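Weekly structure sync, notes
Attendees: PL (lead), two postdocs, one rotation student
Agenda item 3: pending single-chain targets
PL asked that the sequence for the first pending target be pasted directly into the notes so everyone works from the same version. It is reproduced below exactly as submitted, 310 residues in total.
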Amino acid sequence: MTGGAGFIGSHLCEYLLRQGHRIICLDNFFTGSRNNIKHLLKNKNFKLFEKDIIDPFYIKGRVHRIYNLACPASPVHYQFNAIRTVKANTTGMINVLGFARQHKARILQASTSEIYGDPLEHPQKETYKGNVNTIGPRACYDEGKRVAETLMFDYFRKWRMEIKVARIFNTYGPRIARDDGRVVSNFIIQALGNKPITIYGRGNQTRSFCFVSDMVEGLVKLMESDVNFRGPVNLGNPDEFTIKELADKVLKLTQSKSKISHQSLPSDDPKQRQPDITLARKELKWQPRIKLEDGLKETIKYFQEKILKK
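Predicted structure, written out during the meeting:
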């Protein structure tokens, strides 16, 4: 599990441990946190190695499945060092693929809805090629993830490796970092502190929010799906909300006194984002179950108990 100490990665480690698997977790702790996995360190089936996939690595023992989640996923973090973000998706991807080939292991790549850019198709199907600015400030992540998908399929064509590609849409839940920079954590932290809720533009842009437990189940179903189903496949919640609607829900659930503060839109910020999950429903028999309001309650509770009380 590369990126196993991250937000989604730590939940995925927990899920797989409950199923009786042995986990080798690799993380460089740039965005991952030891706090996310400290409760797993005493588990005999969990081993942690502090490593960066950009550097060549070797792990003893037989590996059967590889989940590659090692890459900063929020604009604040992936733009902090754009070149290293590109390296994680190129050099790092090659290192992980080489490791998978050495072990004859099946590999799942955590790709992203960002490969669709600011989409001209709505909702987004896997067949949509995207509308991405190759020289914009988000390109290190958007284009990096597109190249990572290319490498996955090139290794499949060259070596007939068992590959799976998941295009992950906005995911939220407990353990999302307070400085993550994405909209759910921003709004919750601001609301709990009675600070102004920052909305970029008028708040009419839309997003679709998937609770982390639903995402984890989708990733595992994809990994264990038929060998001939490789993806890419969208994983996300197709329920679509405007950013203003999300802000209103957070304000209501937190009973916050915060006011809305409108700011200028960031460069290349997508106006609409909604997954078409027809393929996931058909091939994986998967669809999200957690409603946004229920997931927000759990996430708010996490920030109240684990973050703001410190």
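Discussion points:
- The CA atoms of residues 16 and 23 lie 8 Å apart.
- The longest strand covers residues 106-112.
Action: rotation student to compare against the earlier draft before next sync.
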